[in-house]
Amino acid sequence: MRIPIIAGNWKMNMTIKEGIEFIGKIKPSVKGTDVEVLICAPYVMLKDLVEAAKGSNVKIGAENMHYEEKGAFTGEISPLMLKEIDVDYVILGHSERRQYYNETDETVNKKLVKALEFKISPIVCVGETLDQREGDLTKDVCKVQIEGAFNNINQDDVEKIVIAYEPIWAIGTGKTATSEEANEVIMYIRNVIKGLYDEETSEKVRIQYGGSVKPSNVEEIMNESDIDGALVGGASLKADSFVELVNF
Ligand SMILES: O=C(CO)COP(=O)(O)O
């Protein structure tokens, strides 16, 4: 049984005050849900959000981290620091980090190893650009990204990892992959995991879809056979909308 996970990725939005208020608002409304509820937010507010979410089923995650525990990396945040403030999750390899901050499959892999070592649950993002989709390269791109990220990851750790399939052309554009299209790629990604490990392992790993998910399309997406959740940007910024997503 794969427990669905609905996650917000706030990106570089929200102030600390707004973030704390948001958590206070959603807590009572998501209490009864069977899905895992997660908010990923900027570093500066994580400690406050962890505090605000205490005693509830709302989990808190970071949007990135460095792969070293400590050292001369000005401006970076380490897994040790995230663990110290009880962060549950970390997003790794988001397409915006790959596009603007030189994130590569190799650095995603190093970060994945460290997240597992520090017992921070990782969400590994993969997905193709519009050009790649139009060139029929979607599956190839996802395969390379998954194989790169999972390099030397032990079979026992695989079920602790969440994968997010986020086609780049669907992020923040209002264009969603149809739920069938998303499911097809996600089934393919599961098959890549099966090839790297075995079927039992591949059936345990949770794979989310991300890209213009909103209250009006979340149910259809979540009804697909292999989609185990959503990673949501824009529609996660308003408490009402996020609650609707969780209670799809
Ligand atoms: O990048 C995303 C989540 O990580 C998706 O963003 P949108 O939901 O705004 O398209």
TrEMBL record:
Which chain regions cross the lipid bilayer?
none
EC number(s) recorded for this UniProt protein: 5.3.1.1
Going by the UniProt record, its keywords in alphabetical order are:
Cytoplasm, Gluconeogenesis, Glycolysis, Isomerase
Task: Give the main EC class.
Answer: isomerase
Q: Does the keyword Cytoplasm apply?
A: yes
Reaction(s) catalysed by this chain, per the record, are: D-glyceraldehyde 3-phosphate = dihydroxyacetone phosphate
For this UniProt entry, the molecular function terms from Gene Ontology, in alphabetical order, are:
triose-phosphate isomerase activity
Q: Which PROSITE patterns match?
A: TIM_1, TIM_2
Pathway it belongs to? Answer: Carbohydrate biosynthesis; gluconeogenesis; Carbohydrate degradation; glycolysis; D-glyceraldehyde 3-phosphate from glycerone phosphate: step 1/1
Listed GO cellular component terms? Answer: cytosol
Where is the protein situated, by its record's location annotation? Cytoplasm
Per the record, the similarity remark reads:
Belongs to the triosephosphate isomerase family.
- Which NCBIfam families does this entry report, sorted A to Z? tim
Subunit details: Homodimer.
| PANTHER family found in the cross-reference section | TRIOSEPHOSPHATE ISOMERASE
Protein known as: Triosephosphate isomerase
Q: Which gene encodes it?
A: tpiA
